[in-house]
Each structure stands twice: as structure tokens, then as C-alpha cells.
Design brief:
binds guanosine-5'-diphosphate, elongated, alpha/beta, Rossmann fold, single chain, 60s Ribosomal Protein L30, Chain: A
Length: 392
């Protein structure tokens, strides 16, 4: 698939940057267009791979933002993006939409710029283009507290209702206790980028009909057509060296033994099984998925038709749906064989219920505090018998 990828806010831009890094490291070419949109000038300076001319600062003339961000205020994030909609639309004008199959908007839902601005950007894209618009949304960890949970729970409703499919990533599930938050984010972003790019880059070259079981971009679009919230599983293994110490893929066809035997099939099926049983980007009940798709990526000498067939049967049972596609994505020079599994429209994801509960509590607390704030300030600055008067 060929994508136009847009990071909104800080987390969104960092994740898109890691996607570009993974692409260049693995010789893929998924993101044909990229943009980073943010309200904070300093955050826009951070990416290593997003070209300077593709970074769009919004809200710099807004009194509440002034180029310094929106301080986690989702309302201000949305307001600023709406006010600068012309600038956002102008940035998209140079997207040669006929060169892409779909658009992906990436944002963290716990903050202000991505959480509030993301849905505004999505509206603009849906109006401008007929191509499907997907989102990758990061859910805040429980440890972040009530405000991010409230932002995320509200913003999730906007995102999911506006996009053609929403892929979730749960910071809570991916947090490693022994790391600092920044180190943790860095690792999560790399893990997430590997999953997204391995999955979505399948069929990127348009010559997929050369390989019998090759995954096509239309297969991915069809799987994501369900709408709702989706999750990705992933597993990878090093490609074994042959007895001569050379990688199999370097031997000529005549030398290459036909390895499409039981062991290779078992390896492919095992990899898909590991991917599904691994930590999903958004943990959820696999059997609640509407559709599933698995991409086997690596050197073609490692592929196995039997393996693909048995992986498909296994996945059909596991996800409890007949809408299952398994295909491969040849990467001749890859030292790894990997499986990325998309579970589309997963309807049971406990973390979303938790965030909603945390958000309702936070909303109540905020309302209570607002109700008594004036009174408390008054009590504090007024003497006991109200003998004193203000100066002016
Ligand atoms: P924004 O710039 O106002 O959209 O806010 P941020 O993107 O900085 O933060 C929004 C939310 O995204 C936070 O509440 C975190 O949950 C999450 N977040 C921030 N940075 C990262 C990151 O690098 N990786 C991941 N996975 N999550 C992040």
C-alpha cells in the first residue's frame, strides 16, 4: 500500500518519524507523502526524517497557543486547527493523491494538539479526498491521570466516527516499568513503527501479481473497511543460514532446495500464531474481531504455500470469522521473516472501558472543583467577620 501519512501533535509526529526510519532501514517505500502538524514550534523541530518543508506550525497567531503548544487542552487544540484550516488545506494541496491508496493520521489522544486537532484534520481530508482515511491513535497510560484519560475518551469518539478505521495503541500495555517515560516512548514508537510499516507496506510495489500469494493494497483496504477500532499483532524471526554459511536467498535457484515442506509451513503458521498471541498494539479479545489479515514478510525463499493455508485456517478459528486473508510480501534482502496480523474491528478492548471510567471520574471531579472554586477563593481572601474592604 502507498500512504500519505500525517502526524498531528508531538506523539503523532514522533511516531511518523519512526515509521520513516523503519522504512529506510528496511528498504521499504510506504509513506509517499508525510506531514507533521503541531502547535508547538519546539516539538516541530524534533523529527529526524520528516523534511523541514513538510512541518506545519498552526496556531502561532492564536493568543492561547502562540507557537508554544496548547498545554494539553483538547478544546484549544481543536479551536486552533479550525482557525488554521486554510493553512492545513494548503499544505495538503501538494499531495498527489493519485499516487497513494489511503491516508493515515497519527496522534496521541491524551494531549491537546493531536487529540483536538486530529479530528479537524480528518474532516478536512475526508472532504478533500475520496481515498480512505485511517487513524492511528495512542491511548494514554493510566499513570498519566484523569485529564489525559478525559481527553482520550472524548477524542476517541470523534476519531472513530470520522475515520474509515482506527488502529489503537495502548501506552499502558507497552510501558516498561524500569524505563524513564522518554526512553519508554522511544522504544514503543519503534515497536509500533515496525508493526505499522510491516503491515501496511505489503503490496506497495504494485507488481503483486508476480507472486501467487502476494498481499495487495486492496486486501488491506477491504479488511479495514469494517470501520471501528483495530489492533495489530507482530512476530519476527531471523532467517536461518544454510549449511554453507550463506543465507538461502543468495544461492541460485538450481542450488536452492525446495524448502516448501512441512517444517517451513510449520514455521509460517507458528509465526502467525505468535503474532496473534503477542502483546497487541491494543490488547483485546481476538475472537471479537470482524475481519483479520496477516502479512508474511521476508525473503521469498522462506515462503510456504502450505504455511499460508494452515495459518489462514488457524486464524479463521482464532478470530472466529471467515473473513481472513493471509498473504506474503517479498523482501528479497531481509534478514528476518515476520508476520504482522491486523485484527479489524475488535469490539472487546478492556482498556477502552477503563479509560472511559477514569474519564467520567475526572469529568465529575473537574465539575465539582469548578462549582466550588469561586466560593473557596472568596472564603480565602475574606476575613472572618468581613470587616475589610478591597482597595479599588
Ligand atoms: P500534543 O502534542 O498536545 O498532541 O500532546 P503529546 O503528543 O505530547 O501527548 C499526547 C499523549 O500522547 C500523551 O498523553 C501520551 O499518552 C502520548 N505520548 C506522548 N509522546 C509519546 C510518544 O513518543 N510515544 C507514545 N507512544 N505516546 C506518546
Amino acid at each position: 500500500m502507498k500512504l500519505a501519512t500525517i502526524g498531528v501533535g508531538n506523539a503523532g509526529s514522533k511516531i511518523v518519524d519512526r515509521m520513516l526510519e523503519f522504512e529506510s532501514r528496511t528498504d521499504r517505500n510506504l509513506c509517499r507523502h508525510v506531514h507533521a502538524i503541531n502547535t508547538a514550534r519546539t516539538d516541530l523541530a524534533k523529527p529526524d526524517y520528516i523534511p523541514e518543508e513538510r512541518r506545519v506550525l498552526i496556531g502561532d497567531t492564536n493568543q492561547k497557543a502562540k507557537g508554544h503548544g496548547v498545554g494539553g487542552d483538547v478544546e484549544v487544540g481543536a479551536e486552533v486547527a479550525k482557525a488554521d484550516l486554510d493553512e492545513i488545506r494548503r499544505a495538503f494541496d501538494d499531495v498527489e493523491i493519485h499516487t497513494v491508496d489511503a491516508i493515515l493520521v497519527v496522534a496521541g489522544l491524551g494531549g491537546g494538539s493531536g487529540s483536538g486537532g486530529g479530528p479537524v484534520v480528518i474532516d478536512a481530508l475526508q472532504e478533500m479526498y475520496d481515498e480512505p482515511v485511517y487513524a492511528l491513535g495512542v491511548l494514554p497510560g493510566e499513570y498519566e491521570g484523569g485529564r489525559p484519560a478525559l481527553n482520550a475518551a472524548r477524542s476517541l469518539q470523534s476519531f472513530v466516527s470520522k475515520v474509515d478505521n482506527f488502529i489503537g495503541f495502548d501506552n499502558d500495555a507497552w510501558r516498561a516499568r524500569e524505563q524513564t517515560i522518554e526512553e519508554g516512548y522511544e522504544q514503543m514508537n519503534r515497536e509500533l513503527a515496525a508493526r505499522l510499516v510491516t503491515l501496511l507496506a505489503a503490496g506497495e510495489t504494485d507488481d503483486s501479481d508476480v507472486a501467487e500469494n502476494a498481499m495487495d493494497s486492496s486486501d488491506i483496504i477491504r479488511t479495514l473497511n469494517t470501520g471501528g477500532i483495530s489492533s495489530i499483532g507482530y512476530a519476527a524471526t531471523q532467517v536461518e543460514e544454510s549449511s554453507e554459511g550463506l543465507l538461502d536467498r543468495w544461492s541460485s535457484d538450481s542450488q536452492r532446495v525446495n524448502r516448501d515442506d512441512g517444517s517451513q509451513a510449520t514455521k509460517i503458521k507458528g509465526l502467525v500464531r505468535r503474532a496473534v498471541n503477542s502483546r497487541l498494539t491494543l490488547p483485546g479479545e481476538v475472537s471479537s474481531a470482524d475481519r483479520a489479515l496477516a502479512v508474511i514478510s521476508g525473503p521469498p525463499s522462506e515462503f510456504s504455500r502450505k504455511g499460508i493455508e494452515s495459518a489462514r485456517q488457524w486464524l479463521e478459528q482464532e478470530a472466529d470469522t471467515v473473513e481472513v486473508l493471509v498473504g506474503d510480501d517479498p523482501r528479497e534482502s531481509s534478514p528476518r521473516l515476520s508476520a504482522a496480523v491486523l485484527l479489524s474491528n475488535v469490539t472487546e478492548a478492556p482498556r477502552i472501558d477503563e479509560i472511559q471510567n477514569q474519564a467520567v471520574d475526572a469529568q465529575e471531579k473537574i465539575a465539582e472543583q469548578e462549582a466550588v472554586r469561586e466560593e473557596q477563593i472568596n472564603d480565602l481572601i475574606t476575613d472572618d467577620n468581613n470587616d475589610l474592604d478591597p482597595v479599588v
